[in-house]
Amino acid sequence: MVKYIVISVSIFVLALFQTSFLSVLFGAKYTPNLVLAFTLTLVLLGSLEFGTYAGFIGGLMLDLMGVSIFGFSALLNVVIVLTVFYTRKTFFKGNVSFSIFVLVSNFMYLLLVNLTKLGNPYLYILPSISTLISVLVFHIIVRNGYKGFLRNEYNQLNFKKHARSNIK
Predict the structure, then answer these.
(1) Quick one: which of 22, 56, 23 has its CA closest to 39?
(2) DSSP states of 104-143
């Protein structure tokens, strides 16, 4: 329960920071998506449960702060988390492929959220790169600062290994 409260508070602070301060600092078109970056960091660390929770709560908080239609960002975040997690688990296990997934998923997120605003899609490349940098920074912070915090009974990326070792 404490883990969910810490993740909720972290997501709230990141959503508030993203929609208020960073949009003024970088301009609205170049702001990194900190909520998606934190969510994908949890997925990178192997936690589907906390990643989907953070994506859903973060999307709702972004929608409450006026980013898009209520529930749309939450839906996109959860779909992105599930797609990235199962694609990484099934096909591509490396960090380079994960980085490509982060770039593509943030680009698609921005394209779908800003669908009604017919802008130049090339403007979404720089925020996607800044989101990738945010994922790397969050990965270092969460991995080193919260050792053991995200541990479940098993690492969800290596579920097959643990299931086979329990059978023997």
Answers:
(1) 56
(2) HHHHHHHHHHTSSS---GGGGHHHHHHHHHHHHHHHHHHH
Distance CA 106, CA 42 (A): 16
Residue with tokens 């810490």: 6
Residue 12 CA, distance from chain mean position:
14
Residues in the chain: 168
Token pair, residue 91, equals 């096909």
Q: Note whether 131 and 36 are within 8 A (CB).
A: yes
Q: Which domain holds residue 142?
A: 2-167
Percentage with pLDDT > 70 across the chain: 82
Residue 81 CB partners (closer than 8 Å, separation 6+): 39, 40, 43, 48, 51, 52, 55
Work out how many domains the chain is built from and give that number: 1
Query: pTM of the entire structure?
Result: 0.79
Tell me the CATH number at 112.
1.10.1760
Give me the pLDDT at residue 12, please. Answer: 93
* 69 phi, psi to nearest 5 deg: -60, 140
Contact residues for 86 (Cβ-Cβ < 8 A; gap 6+): none
Q: What angle do CA 151, 155, 159 make, to 5 degrees?
A: 155
